[in-house]
Amino acid sequence: MSIVPGTAQYSVLVAHIAFAFVAMATGFLQFVDRLCVQRPAMHRMVGRVYVGAVFVSGLLAFLLIFYIADYGRALSFLVLALAWLWTCWKGYRAAVRGKYDEHRAWMIRSFGITLVAVSARLLVPVLLITYLALHGFSLPDGREGMVEQVLNVNVWAGIVVDVMIVEWVVLRKNK
Question: N or C: which end of the chain has fewer CB within 10 A?
Fold first, then answer.
């Protein structure tokens, strides 16, 4: 990413990160059963903050994609932003329509997509070891090349891992 402090793109990046942080913090609160059951009005209010934060951060992500030099990385962020907005929208619409089981399933999916920002980074050491193992523990492109290749796939890996975990959770709850 070629975003330099002091530019308009940098301000967009900071706003994207700030709203994503709000989404992450409020998203965790939404899964506190005590809040959902004992304080439904609070759950709805925090939920609206979550949805608003996702939509602002997700839309800002579209602007940032144009500043990602690598096509594969840019595409991973585009897919991530679309999935984030779509799953959140589906969850919100289900709640408005009173379909609370459907709402819960879509919001679990949405929060799983929110957590890709974390899981993609947590997967980097695993991806580095995988890279080394697949290349006979040598560095054909040097250390910088290895890191570059890992950072080109870590978001994809985060999406795949999170979707697998989330769908396991959603399907398990629907039994």
Answer: C
Distance CA 110, CA 119 (A): 14
Q: How far apart are CA 46 and CA 175, in angstroms?
A: 28
Q: Which amino acid is at 23?
A: A
The 3 state secondary structure assigned to the chain is CCCCCCCHHHHHHHHHHHHHHHHHHHHHHHCCHHHHHHCHHHHHHHHHHHHHHHHHHHHHHHHHHCCCCCHHHHHHHHHHHHHHHHHHHHHHHHHHCCCHHHHHHHHHHHHHHHCHHHHHHHCHHHHHHHHHHHCCCCCCCHHHHHHHHHHHHHHHHHHHHHHHHHHHHHHHHCC
Q: Which two tokens stand for residue 73?
A: 């990385």
Return the structure tokens found at 154: 């870590």
Per-domain residue ranges of the chain: 8-173
**For the chain (length 175 residues), average pLDDT per consecutive 10?**
77 94 94 82 93 97 91 93 97 96 93 94 93 84 85 92 90 71
